[in-house]
Amino acid sequence: MKDKDLATLFENCFPSTLDTTVLRASEQDTFIITGDINAMWLRDSMFQVLPYMRFAKRDEKLMEMLHGLVRRHLESVLIDPYANGFNEFANDNHYMVDNRIPPMPPTVWEGKYELDSLCAVIKLNYEVVTADSGNVTFLQPVVRQWIKAMEIILDTMSDQQKSTEMQDNIYPYMFFRRYPHGVFEYYPRKNATGYTGMIRSAFRPSDDMTSMDFLVPSNIMASVALQQLMELCGTMADTFPEYSRRNGDIKCNAGSLHRLFLLLLLFFVSLWILLQWYGYQPYTVEYLNY
Questions:
Q1: For residues 248 and 241, is the Cβ–Cβ distance under 8 A?
Q2: Which residue windows are transmembrane per the record (predicted)?
Q3: CA atoms within a 13 Å half-sphere pointing along the CA-CB vector of 272
Q4: pLDDT band at 256 (very low <50, low <70, confident <90, very high)
Q5: Which of 61, 95, 110, 238 pairs as cysteine with 85 (C-beta 3.0–4.6 A)?
Q6: Strand locations in the chain, DSSP E?
Q7: pTM of whole model > 0.90?
């Protein structure tokens, strides 16, 4: 870099994740804390390592660390697809004592359902495989776990597509937290929605509760992640032909969700333009929730 100050800043900041947040790194398991808390966020840990992808092919230890993080993400989804933050061990250490459905396992640090957390698991897989020129052989020891984790992600997305009426008083996710100054509470009857094909997200990427369930940026991220999952399934089926049928099923389900997203996004963008054109700005967001 020509700018020495910028070069110094980059030199100090770029390796910060490796120097300060990687608590464990190996081919089998990598645990990366979010920074100020000794817990791992699925979304945060993916973005923390994203800048290193371009160098992983030339650095064996770096690639092993990324492989270990992929495994940790898969394990986390198998433990609890509705959680955003996880402990390194099953020590029953939680941010707060929350009332939640489903109950929080000991490995979960915080049990906020955020759609982008599930998308981050897919994106991490995709970016690591892409960085290694499409090589998925590192997943051979955990291929069954990989398939199961992806099936759980798609099942969770499908469950959170259902309208309040379609859920028929059987809710896969509810959340209640009491603060000295108030409460955090999320339950479908309070946040009633109709069916649109979009996916609910109880919390935003900031970990704050959503005012309206159909968080558009997270749904757009889901659309991209589903397309990435379809590509991954093709590669997995070619590499592990004995699992080609199950990979084909995942690819088919992901494809159905992805095509629906494209139609919905086209519809909502057209609706937004129409409402803006006719001067109905105050009502735009309210209409989008239904």
A1: no
A2: 260-280
A3: 10
A4: low
A5: 110
A6: 22-24, 31-32, 40-41, 85-86, 99-101, 108-110, 174-179, 182-186
A7: no
